[in-house]
Write a structure and sequence with these properties.
- The termini are close together.
- Helix 1 crosses helix 2 (14-26).
- The protein has helices at 3-12, 14-26, 47-53, 56-65, 81-94.
- The chain has one domain: Orthogonal Bundle (Cytochrome Bc1 Complex, Chain D, domain 2), CATH 1.10.760.10.
- It contains five helices and no strands.
- The radius of gyration is 13 Å and the shape is globular.
Length: 99
């Protein structure tokens, strides 16, 4: 999905827009959160790559209980259930579309 398509989807789906806003506020300092931007931290994979490794629904429990990574400079994040739904919905929108 292109950045333009992601933006259009966020405009029409409030849940996707909320997830994108949460990731922008909490994760964009290091991770690329869009369809074609670059991560500013060398060890932080773009979320469009993360969704090819881990199904977004599989990340829901970690997002709710406390997301911790293997590198020490990433803070722990804990999100509320409605935030988890919004984030996983946004991440799902980043998955490559099958042809």
């Amino acid at each position: 999905m292109t950045a333009l398509a992601t933006a259009a989807t966020a405009e029409t789906n409030p849940l996707i827009a909320k997830g994108q806003a949460l990731l922008q506020a909490n994760c964009a300092r290091c991770h690329a959160i869009g369809a074609d931007d670059a991560s500013t931290h060398k060890d932080a994979p773009p979320f469009r790559v993360v969704v090819t490794r881990y199904p977004p629904d599989n990340l829901a429990e970690a997002l709710a209980e406390g997301l911790v990574s293997g590198h020490p400079d990433m803070p722990e994040f804990v999100f509320e259930p409605d935030e988890v739904v919004a984030i996983t919905t946004y991440l799902e929108s980043l998955k490559p579309q099958s042809k």
